[in-house]
């Protein structure tokens, strides 16, 4: 480590407690102090550059220091940085709500804002529960969730998620949920198609709905990709079946599009690929182009109407966060949506995704790669001990960490989830940069699996 970086590392480690980190790891692998970002590149204080292949935790869409988003945030800063959203309003939140409701699946006409993804999930969970109470069905208070799902770290969001690593220790604090096997297509039988597997797995959900509909408020899913659960993917047919079954059993459907929204899976929202409209759609991360913490839950008129009454009836949704609908975040979000419109981002992404997929699939030949899977601008590479029998590496071996450190030495930020190496780059990446990513990943996987 050069002295320019070392000075920051020393000051950092004296006071900063980093997220999702065993701080002792920093004894041998110090955090990297970043001085600036530009496009897909991050630069440390010694001038070393890193290609941000994970979009800074899946938030960045159009590169760091994007001139158009910068200009929008700067302009907003000069007029209004923040205002209470209870009793007051502002132009950025009004205009953003108009734009989002026009873009979202038809019928999602109401926007409730928060300031991060987990908070959006809390809002959706509380709203669904409260809707059933307000409409005279208080017994409907449980949530149905998929195995291997992830919805955030606050206690409600953690409860409806299912990644053991994050959840197990806090279990005594969490509400009890109904967990159903995942449609994850990595688990499909040899020869089965994604659609066949996802459709077959739906039988578990149908059974759970039939059994629990009387006490279930909502089913919550990550549409198409279980990201934190290792970028496990499933077929849209599952969502179509789920929508129909939720209607039949009178249970809400919450779509957590926090990671997959805004073009990640090939369509603006992943739900579109199944042609469905959820009752609640949670958005964050890419909502602001990855600039500022903002989230929103979109819902329907019937849900809104169930809360609309005289104050004394106490049916209102009395939930708030200080920075709900922050004007700077809304301005960044509007600039982000403008880029989608002006640059025809979804069409451009199709070409980029095709290149990414064509290059990444080469990794499937590796003796310790069981699968390379893709959905739009997400590609995942599953490292395994035994390819023929799909035996996973023990998590204690931390194979992903070897990929991470190798990639850093080559100027690429890859941050595997367990044994899954993935690419989820900003949409401004070039084909040449994609080639670099794949080459570095190949070397990293080699280094991680060579024993
Ligand atoms: N839901 C999903 C699907 C996510 O991927 C994440 C974040 N990784 C969250 C919720 C939580 O969002 P946040 O980290 O902003 O609380």
List keywords for this structure.
four-stranded mixed sheet, 451 residues, 2 domains, seven-stranded mixed sheet, Aspartate Aminotransferase, domain 1, alpha/beta, binds 4'-deoxy-4'-aminopyridoxal-5'-phosphate, Aspartate Aminotransferase, domain 2
If you had to describe this structure to a student in words, what would you say it looks like?
With 451 residues, the chain is α/β, with parallel strands linked by helices. The protein folds into two domains: 32-65 and 345-449, Aspartate Aminotransferase, domain 1 (Alpha-Beta Complex), CATH 3.90.1150; 70-343, Type I PLP-dependent aspartate aminotransferase-like (Major domain) (Aspartate Aminotransferase, domain 2, 3-Layer(aba) Sandwich). The protein is 38% helix and 16% strand. It contains 14 helices and 16 strands. The strands form four sheets. A seven-stranded mixed beta sheet has the order 4-12-11-10-7-5-6, with helices on both faces. Strand 13 (369-375) and strand 14 (378-383) form a beta hairpin. Helix 13 packs across helix 14. It is globular. The relative contact order is 0.14. The site of 4'-deoxy-4'-aminopyridoxal-5'-phosphate has 14 residues, from helix 5. The site of 4'-deoxy-4'-aminopyridoxal-5'-phosphate (PMP) has 14 residues, from helix 5.
């Amino acid at each position: 480590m050069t002295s320019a970086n070392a000075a920051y590392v020393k000051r950092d480690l004296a006071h900063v407690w980093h997220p999702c980190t065993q701080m002792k790891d920093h004894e041998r692998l110090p955090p990297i102090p970043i001085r600036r970002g530009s496009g897909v590149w991050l630069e440390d204080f010694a001038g070393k550059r890193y290609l941000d292949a994970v979009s800074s935790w899946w938030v960045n869409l159009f590169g760091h220091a994007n001139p158009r988003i910068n200009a929008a945030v700067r302009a907003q800063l000069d007029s209004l940085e923040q205002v209470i959203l209870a009793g007051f309003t502002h132009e950025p939140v009004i205009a953003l709500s108009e734009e989002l409701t026009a873009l979202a699946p038809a019928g999602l006409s109401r926007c409730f804002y928060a300031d991060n993804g987990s908070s959006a999930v809390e809002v959706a969970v509380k709203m669904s529960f409260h809707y059933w109470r307000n409409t005279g069905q208080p017994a409907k208070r449980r949530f149905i969730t998929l195995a291997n799902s992830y919805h955030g770290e606050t206690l409600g969001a953690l409860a409806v998620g299912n990644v053991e690593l994050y959840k197990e220790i806090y279990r005594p604090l969490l509400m009890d949920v109904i967990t159903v096997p995942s449609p994850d297509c990595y688990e499909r039988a040899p020869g089965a198609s994604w659609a066949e597997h996802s459709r077959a797995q739906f039988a578990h959900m149908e059974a759970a709905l039939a059994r629990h509909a009387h006490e279930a408020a909502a089913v919550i899913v990550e549409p198409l990709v279980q990201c934190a659960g290792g970028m496990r993917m499933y077929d849209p047919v599952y969502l179509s079946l789920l929508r129909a079954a939720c209607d039949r059993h009178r249970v809400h459907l919450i779509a957590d599009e926090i990671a997959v929204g805004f073009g990640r899976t090939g369509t603006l929202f992943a739900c579109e690929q199944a042609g469905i409209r959820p009752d609640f759609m949670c958005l964050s991360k890419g909502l602001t182009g990855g600039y500022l913490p903002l989230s929103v839950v979109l819902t329907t008129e019937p849900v809104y109407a169930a809360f609309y009454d005289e104050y004394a009836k106490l049916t209102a949704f009395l939930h708030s966060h200080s920075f709900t609908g922050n004007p700077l975040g809304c301005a960044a979000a509007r600039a982000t949506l403008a880029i989608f419109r002006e640059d025809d981002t979804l069409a451009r992404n199709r070409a980029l995704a095709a290149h990414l997929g064509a290059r990444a699939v080469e990794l499937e030949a590796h003796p310790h790669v069981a699968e390379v899977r893709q959905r739009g601008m997400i590609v995942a590479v599953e490292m395994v001990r035994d390819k023929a029998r799909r035996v996973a590496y023990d998590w204690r071996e931390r194979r992903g960490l070897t990929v991470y450190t190798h990639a850093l030495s080559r100027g690429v930020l890859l941050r595997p989830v367990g044994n899954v190496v993935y690419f989820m780059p900003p949409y401004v990446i070039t084909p040449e940069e994609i080639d670099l990513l794949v080459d570095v990943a190949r070397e990293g996987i080699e280094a991680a699996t060579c024993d």
